[in-house]
Backbone:
């Protein structure tokens, strides 16, 4: 019963009040909050996409030859869609919880703990949307000048795909936020999980494991599904089975991660 | 006498097999201050956390305005204001915005919110800092803002967890005035403090807990009488008969013989005092009424005795 309440709290006004609080802070500092993080995928695109495209002329994607920069363009959507909510829910949420004691103040109101967690999940996912929007604009510009060849009309969908997967990534990160003893320990979820996951998910290069177990793991990895869905839309205009895969893997991630993060955050913040 | 707006019965909470709060009853009426006292580790904070819903009790019940807290937490929490001990202001917002954003965590929404915020800024002398970051506020003004924030939604019950800890004497007096004015407006206030003068002056009723259980409850002077007795004698460090007096009192059953900076402090009954005066005619000592400091010292020395 408590678990079900934790999941349905997404629809409560309290969750959106927490979301609104984070959005208001973001709007006050949007210049500093948007430009630096949005530059990262652009730099990656220039370094990997344009840099390596001199050495890797074409890749085959679902029977179609595409240039490497186009391959990476879709990967960047997944990279941003994963990294932004993941790091937002790791670092920013940790600051709000541990240093600023913002959650302590919020919890002394009508807002219950599952709503705090959902507010952070929703906010992380929306931050992902914002950054994917910027990346999409950059991809559109590169498409215009001929550096990549994408179906630009589908770029409008990218932020929404990012939002869906972003909920799963933020809920996953909040598990670590609830358990790391100090900010220095964030290196573990960043370097042992964040970086590997964002690189081995068909973002910057195709990964084709031979082992059936690894293949199955790939299918339930939302980063992989986000990359392939984005690529399907941008290259072919058709995501194939990956849109369903994205929805399925996101759900598979989101439910247990949310339940676990609520439980661990309750223990950490309320001592219960 | 009005009925209690907050009523808790049989509150019990354990952590890892250790009973932290044990079958505690308490109540608070409109327009009164209930002082919740006890040494460190007595169970005050856990009691408060159960009352405002941070942790569920293992047993017992909590009612706000006659309604069970666990049956409709959201509605009950609309009537509660909480001023936590730690600074939980939202430093991403200005002073005025702190009040506005905090009000957004309540439904039904606060009526005439802009007016309410202006009223609180004025009343708590925060108007000149309205557009400033809380970073510029002194400790006393941070505390004012925390209290103002906790009543922005016009609650009926206010929890103040050590509201003057760390403040200078002048700022403490200002907070006392604010608490007194909120009581006069009809708020039911539950106050925890380590300052005995504060508890004595502000509380209409005291609830003293020790090792999770009620030790005494009632008006401040009655609570002191219950636990300590009629007088406290203070035998100075240099008094030659000091050890002899202590032994004599202990032989008569005085349990709370305390030594503070070499002085002997012993709560005694009127009868003890009469006999002491007759027996130690050459000795010198002071006699004064017992206060809550004596109570705390006595409780600390009685550790485990109430079980």
Residues:
């Amino acid at each position: 019963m408590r678990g079900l309440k934790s999941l349905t709290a997404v629809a409560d006004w309290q969750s959106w009040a927490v979301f609104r609080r984070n959005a208001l802070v973001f709007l006050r500092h949007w210049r500093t909050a948007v430009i630096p993080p949005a530059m990262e995928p652009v730099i990656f695109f220039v370094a990997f996409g344009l840099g390596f495209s001199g050495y890797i002329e074409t890749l085959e994607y679902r029977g179609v030859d595409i240039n490497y920069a186009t391959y990476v363009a879709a990967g960047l959507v997944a990279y941003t869609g994963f990294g932004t909510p993941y790091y937002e829910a790791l670092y920013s949420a940790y600051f709000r919880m541990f240093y600023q004691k913002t959650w302590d103040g919020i919890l002394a109101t009508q807002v219950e703990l599952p709503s705090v967690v959902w507010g952070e999940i929703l906010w992380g996912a929306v931050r992902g949307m914002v950054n994917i929007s910027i990346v999409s604009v950059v991809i559109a510009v590169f498409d215009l000048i001929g550096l990549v060849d994408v179906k630009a009309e589908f770029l409008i969908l990218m932020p929404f795909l990012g939002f869906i997967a972003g909920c799963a990534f933020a809920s996953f990160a909040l598990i670590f936020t609830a358990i790391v003893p100090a900010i220095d320990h964030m290196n573990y979820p960043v370097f042992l999980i964040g970086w590997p996951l964002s690189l081995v998910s068909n973002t910057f290069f195709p990964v084709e494991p031979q082992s059936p177990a690894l293949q199955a793991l790939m299918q339930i990895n939302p980063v992989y599904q986000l990359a392939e869905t984005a690529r399907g839309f941008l290259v072919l205009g058709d995501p194939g089975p990956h849109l369903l895969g994205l929805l399925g893997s996101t759900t598979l991630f989101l439910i247990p991660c949310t339940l676990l993060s609520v439980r661990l955050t309750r223990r950490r913040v309320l001592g219960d | 006498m009005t009925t209690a707006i907050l009523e808790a019965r049989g509150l019990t909470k354990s952590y890892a097999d250790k009973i932290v709060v044990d079958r505690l009853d308490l109540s608070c009426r409109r327009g009164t201050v209930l002082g919740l006292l006890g040494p460190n580790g007595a169970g005050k904070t856990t009691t408060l956390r159960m009352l405002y819903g941070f942790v569920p009790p293992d047993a017992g019940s909590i009612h706000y305005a006659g309604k069970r807290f666990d049956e409709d937490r959201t509605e009950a929490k609309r009537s509660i204001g909480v001023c936590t001990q730690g600074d939980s202001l939202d430093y991403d917002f200005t002073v005025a915005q702190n009040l506005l954003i905090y009000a957004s965590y309540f439904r039904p929404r606060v009526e005439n919110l802009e007016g309410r915020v202006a009223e609180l800024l004025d009343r708590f002398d925060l108007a000149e800092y309205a557009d400033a970051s809380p970073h510029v506020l002194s400790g006393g003004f941070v505390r004012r803002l925390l209290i103002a924030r906790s009543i922005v939604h016009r609650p009926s019950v206010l929890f103040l967890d050590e509201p003057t800890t760390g403040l200078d004497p002048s700022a403490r007096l200002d907070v006392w005035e604010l608490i007194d004015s909120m009581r006069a407006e009809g708020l039911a206030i539950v106050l925890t403090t380590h300052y005995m003068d504060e508890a004595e002056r502000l509380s209409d009723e005291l609830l003293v807990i020790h090792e999770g259980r009620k030790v005494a409850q009632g008006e401040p002077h009655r609570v002191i009488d219950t636990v300590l007795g009629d007088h406290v004698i203070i035998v100075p460090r240099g008094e030659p008969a000091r050890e002899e007096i202590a032994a004599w009192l202990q032989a008569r059953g005085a349990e709370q013989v305390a030594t503070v900076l070499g002085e002997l402090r012993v709560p005694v009954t009127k009868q003890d005092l009469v006999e002491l005066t007759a027996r130690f005619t050459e000795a010198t000592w002071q006699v004064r009424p017992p206060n809550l400091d004596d109570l705390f010292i006595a409780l600390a020395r009685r550790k485990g005795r109430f079980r």
About this structure: The mean pLDDT of chain B is 91. The CA atoms of residues 140 and 230 of chain B lie 37 Å apart. The interface with chain A takes residues 49, 52, 54-56, 73-74, 77-78, 82, 84, 86-93, 101-102, 104-107, 149-150, 153 of chain B (CB under 8 Å). The domain at 229-289 of chain B is CATH 3.30.70.980 (Alpha-Beta Plaits).
